[in-house]
Amino acid sequence: MKNSIETDEHTKQIPASEADPKTAPKGTDSILFDVEGMHCASCVNNVEKAIKKVQGVEDVTVNLATEKATVSYRTGETDTTKIVDAVEQAGYQTRVETLQFSVKGMHCASCVGNVEGAILRTPGVKDVSVNLATEKATVRVIPGTINPSKLVEIVQDAGYQAELINEVDRASQTDRQKKEREQELNSIKQSLMIAATFSIPIFLIEMASHFITPFHSWLSASVGMQNLYYLFFVLASVVQFGPGLRFYKQGWPSLRRGTPDMNSLVMLGTTAAYGYSVVATFFPQVLPSGTVNVYFEASAVIVTLILSGRYMEAIAKGRTSESIKRLLSLQAKNARIIRNGKEMEVPVEQVQIGDTILVRPGEKIPVDGEVVDGDSYVDESMISGEPIPVHKTKGDEMVGGTINKNGSIRFKATKIGADTVLAQIIKMVEEAQGSKLPIQSLVNKVTSYFVPAVITLALLTFGIWFIWGPDPALTFALVNAVAVLIIACPCAMGLATPTSIMVGTGKAAEMGVLFRQGDALQALRNTDVIVLDKTGTLTKGEPELTDFEVVEGYESNKILQLVASAENRSEHPIAEAIVKAARDKKVELAEADDFNAKPGFGIETTVNGTRVFVGADRFMTQLKLDISHFDEVRDHLTKEGKTPIYVAMDDKLVAVMAVADPIKESTPAAIKELHQLDLKVAMITGDNEQTARAIANELGIDEVVAEVLPEDKANAVKQLQSNGRKVTFVGDGINDAPALAQADVGIAIGTGTDVAIESAEVVLMSGDLRNVPNAIALSNSTIRNIKENLFWAFVYNIILIPLAAGALYPAFGILLSPIFAAGAMAVSSVFVLGNALRLKRFRPPMKVVNG
Ligand code: ADP
Ligand code: MG
Questions:
Q1: Measured from the CB, is residue 777 less than 6 Å from ligand 1?
Q2: Average pLDDT rounded to a whole number, residues 115-135
């Protein structure tokens, strides 16, 4: 990627006149941070509600699968600390990271107070302790919201010297995330092992005595049923308050706040079964005769099964985030910097802007920067998708995470930490993975009523069986109510969309397609028309001067010199082509004054006292010049797909030139594939109508809108959108930004300008248009996958809740034991996750070098 990507502002950068309601006002910022302790869709709702209540928060998206929250907020009104506090008050945890700084220049307790105060006021900081004796500050921050070097600056602004000593847990981000996943996995595994060890004996004895009558007789004769119950009580208690304690810890607070979640359901269900059994074991006299039964096997096995479901979920979740891991692994760990004339190796977090960094052959470029010295080829394929190493020498940009090939190079760090291109890409992918699709808002509405509804339903089930049920009514009532509580956990529903989005956007990133906004994943598949910008998108954007004809009586070299001198001030690709042609011919360029670029028309300027005009035919017409002299030449040029450029001097037409911009090799195949997907393909360009038609014909493009002024591109898109057609616009230039914003989906070319990237929802890392049909195909597959997941998650509940409530009992005598309910519930989550992981096998229809 040539330019950095700004993702702080998700809002589209479009002129105010065209602003749509999606556009946030100035002074909005966004953070992305980890939220721990969410287990179901209703937890997601709880966290979202809590954050939304914070004054100044504009938009919240919480994702269950990535366990991340994305919040955009107005900077004046709130800060990250308040937002994070709200999450914790709602009963969930955010991940914190501990940083340690050495602080010099403190002499007394009030200095300590100053430093602490300054750090604490920084958004993203949770707490700080400064030690005067050791001259150290230990700061706990919310990862992702603040850069260590920012804290150094803040302490320096307060009048002290600070330096990051190390990140206390030392591990880089990749390792840390891996470690955390492993810890979570291990803790669940341990709980599961204990739960299984203590549940299996109860389960086996219970089942055996149930089905094998002689065994039952032998048991009651030798051990005695009452003694057996005591044994069960001991075993079940270990499960209930050992591994099962987590359900109380998480379920009780949320139940008390009136926002019950999945843990509350498990807690209620198992407590009911366990509690009833305790009463039946120790105080059988309080129960009506015939209802003295124990369900220790139910409470213990439910805990075990739910834990095994969680364990499998944790494994699967780890696999959904592999693409982020791949990106994270691109980050360098260390950098060799030159400070005070000394060469030293430091962790990459300690590199500061302006540091000189030395990179040897084969090493990774640690941060972004600008070459000051040396000469080498750099493999940038991981960032740009361009497989051929790029030559770098003084003044060239370096991108962190890319690999230096053959030469030694010195460069100055210009961007570090969260500002580097790689960090921005990672943030972009994380945000897309964490974003919500329109399809999900319905799911959310359903699940927010779901858990309370289930509790009500369980109570109803209990009541109905208790009043009208057969004897022993209390037993039936209890067992069925517990089954309802357990079966109805909306776990699969909560996982259905986010897991597919994670795998889908991750897969996209692997293909070189970055979704800046997850909505595009859903919107892309509805595309009717693909609109392509011509220059730089369909074509290489590197035109060459091919023809040059002058009016009789003028000397062509003289005119080329004037034109090239004039164009030297312009940044248009056409200008570059003309200047390059002149340089190749060793033409000396002169100074141009009074330069004036007329976007969409051409340029005018003064060279050596001569007024020079260069531009399109409409520019000449505007100048009231007669261009019919070159009509024949023009027809000939445009038929070949070349762009005619007219030159006038002091109000006289003197020459016509032509530039041709070669079409990218990948373009024809991409357009064919788009047609195969039954899409209309249109082209918008500022270029000459005939030239545009010639190129469109060659490529089989269906609709052409030519000679469009830059400011009218968005209008042209709007026109194509009439009749409700959904338009996806692909472009690269600054002048494409309004069109990218206007389109239903904007796709920017990653090698294009920052402005275009900021206005787009999707970024193609390389300029290869074959990734457009690939992205559409992926969008189709992902949404289909989500629908499958939702179907199974809902069908499972719709069928099994009545079954658990005992609806089939009166007619068929069928009841669902709570144990089967727990098994089914675990299976449904695992099923959904497994289905989402199938997306990993998605094969893009078209091969792109980037792979
Ligand atoms: P596009 O992005 O499709 O090339 P532009 O709006 O940038 O469209 O340019 C439209 C036309 O204006 C060009 O095809 C060319 O004829 C003319 N033009 C614009 N800038 C220049 C320039 N610097 N020199 C010569 N012609 C120019
Ligand atoms: Mg362009």
A1: no
A2: 81
